[in-house]
Amino acid sequence: MSGVQLMLFANDITLYFRARYKKSTLFHLQRAIDELYRWFRNWRIEVNPDKSAAIRFKYSKRSSRQIIGLDTLHLRMLNTNIPWQFNYKYLGITLDRNLHFEDYIEYVRKTTLSYRGHLDAMLGRKRKLSLRNKFTMYQVCIRSTMIYPSHIFAHDATKALDRLQVLQNKFLRDATDAHWYVRNLILHRDLKLLIRTKFIKEASKQFFDIAESNPNAPCYSPVP
Fold first, then answer.
1. Closest to 16 (Cα-Cα) out of 8, 31, 6
2. Dihedral angle, C-alpha 134, 139, 144, 145, nearest 10 °
3. DSSP letters along 1-65, please?
4. Are strands 80-82 and 87-90 parallel, antiparallel or unpaired?
5. Is there a contact between 215 and 175 (Cβ–Cβ < 8 Å)?
6. Residue ranges of the domains in the chain?
7. Could you tell me how far CA 107 lies from the centroid of its own chain?
8. Share of the chain above pLDDT 70, in %
9. How many CA atoms lie within 13 A of 155 on its CB side?
10. Mean of the per-residue pLDDT values for the chain?
């Protein structure tokens, strides 16, 4: 498909293409869509174009809610326009046009607050549960939610990741019943817990190091 990459997961299909110019991107993606549809038709596979979406990623340090330029043409499938969107949820991760992952991090923050609220009877201040058990429950129930998938948004803007750090700080203060004058850095040091941004970046580095050193032979040679 002339440089267009294809990703498959269950019954989800993703096409992506990287180019400097928008016109080139649209041309190659439309050709790939047409070729893919012919394959579907030959194998009598039904496709619902209403569930399709298109995003043109353009990384920028400034957040912009503009979806696409006004003069941008639509990609088409089965004579139906594929709508351009600012963000799209794929495999549980919300991808936004600017690749800031702010919407997804906000979703993670709200989910973590929900879990924290359900466990407040055991993890809150003055609770009789031991600190060791509180910390274990935090690692299993809360931290696992905050770090999935950290290798994707690990290098996002620090301000966005700070929202997750605030939640971790609050847990440490509640679990230890720390006084107001005890610094958060002291609590992290005593409990041997890394700062959230540092932990996420180390987890991201470990993930990609494992991927690069995987001894299994690839099923195919991807286009560089």
1. 6
2. 20
3. -TT-EEEEETTEEEEE---SSHHHHHHHHHHHHHHHHHHHHHTT----GGG--B------SS---
4. unpaired
5. no
6. 5-90, 100-212
7. 10
8. 93
9. 5
10. 85
Cα distance between residue 134 and residue 91, in whole Å: 31
Give how far the C-alpha of residue 54 lies from the chain's centroid of Cα atoms, to the nearest Å: 17
191-194, long-range: CB < 8 A, 24+ apart: 191/135, 193/168
Please count the other Cβ atoms lying within 10 Å of the Cβ belonging to residue 189. 10
Nearest to 96, CA basis, from 138, 42, 60: 60
For 78-110, give one letter per residue: b (16+ CB within 10 A) or e: eeeebebeebeeeeeebbbbbebbbebbeebbe
Among candidate residues 57, 6, 68, 59, the one with its CA nearest the CA of residue 31? 6
- Residue 31: the pLDDT is 94
Cα–Cα distance, 15 to 1 (Å, whole number): 10
Which pTM was predicted? 0.77
| 50-109 residue pLDDT tens | 889 999 988 777 767 777 777 788 999 988 999 999 989 888 888 888 888 888 888 888
With a CB cutoff of 8 Å and minimum separation 6, the contacts of 139 are none
What phi-psi label fits residue 21: left (phi over 0), alpha (psi between -120 and 50 degrees) or beta?
beta
The 3-state DSSP class for residue 77 equals strand
